Amino acid sequence: MKIRLHEPTFGEEEIQAACEQMRTTHVTMGPKVREFEEQCARYFGVKYAVMCNSGSSANLLAIAALANPAWHGSLKAGDEVIVPALSWATTIWPIIQHGLIPVFVDCDLSTYNLDMQKLEAAITPKTKAIMLVHVYGNPCDMNKICALAYKHGLYVIEDCCEAMGASYVGHPVGSSGTVSTMSFYYSHHITTFEGGIAFTNSHELAELMRILRAHGWSREADDKQKHIDANPDIDPRFIFINTGYNLRPTEVQAVIGMKQLPKLAYFVRKRRTAQTMYRNRLGKYGEYLQFQEEQMNGQSSCFGFGIVVKGDAPFKCRDLSSFLQSKGVETRPIIAGNMARHPALKMHEHRAAGALSNCDFIMRNGFAIGCHQDIDERAVDYVAGCVDDFMVTYGKYKF
Predict the structure, then answer these.
(1) What is the 3-state secondary structure (H, E, C) of 257-285?
(2) What is the DSSP letter of 53?
(3) Homologous superfamily of 264-392 in CATH?
(4) CATH of domain 12-263
(5) Statement: the pTM of the whole predicted model exceeds 0.85
(6) What is the pLDDT of residue 220?
(7) 228-280 pLDDT, tens per residue?
(8) Residue 6 annotated among the catalytic residues of the structure
């Protein structure tokens, strides 16, 4: 068997919708994008949604808006933004690209999320925001994070790119922060092939992200008439009121997304079932292996199944992961491991709030396997059988 890290979530329904939209010849960003944004905002319980061309771009839009002079209380160069060390490159790069200082905080070894005690200790007078990641769909403790942010007057930026469909105390992730982001990359919970979205309950922030998304153009603003009235000598079709990017999605992506979103709950249930089966089958190896624990009061959307080899195991992480790879079970690092250890960070100012020892341990000793909608009992049996075979080679277990 081949047990892949992901399998496509789209099929004939999405292909037909894409083809039908292409036949209209209206393919670049337009009314279908706005319709999908409104559908997503309702689904995830927020007021405003701004779709873009990737989850990475959604992170860029979120930081760019909060650091823009047009935003009251904007982040300034040299301000510190707390980030989890166990994260992904494009969680970090927008912070650096806007002259902000990422402050890396260690993770909890059981949930993989930010260690709450170390989080509060990392806050200084320069701290202006917390950018969290719900690692592998496991929701962070949003009650504590939001309370801490309120206490210190900090923005909360939720990177939910791995966590679509997860919830904390019954509320969807992405609905609690100042701004949040999700990804529609082809290997994620649902897909528009490439694509992402940013959410906020602030109309002003949503307007700013729409403007920044497309060249700094006024035409994407809901209140564009005020810019036309203020600039009577400029062609009203081409008024640039801010700096910006070209991060626009397409109408084709939007119609695919409208077919995918109603399927999200089903896909999440399948992922959660797969995770439970994995834990049931591999739990007997608790002497050597540990698995991600679900956040208390949270419901994970199970982006992947993380496996960490304990330090006193008679084998190394690479031994087990290489063996599984040889049997057709795809593996990968848990996110990108400790981002503070990657060579790109040597070029940019940053700091670590403490030793980051848990993230280092996961980076050295952890890997993930697929936990998606196509992982069924037969697939789990195969993976578990491969782990059984591996354990036999160490003489501890006999089957």
Answers:
(1) HHHHHHHHHHHHHHHHHHHHHHHHHHHHH
(2) S
(3) Aspartate Aminotransferase, domain 1 (3.90.1150.10)
(4) 3.40.640.10
(5) yes
(6) 87
(7) 999 999 999 999 999 999 999 999 999 999 999 999 999 999 999 999 999 99
(8) no
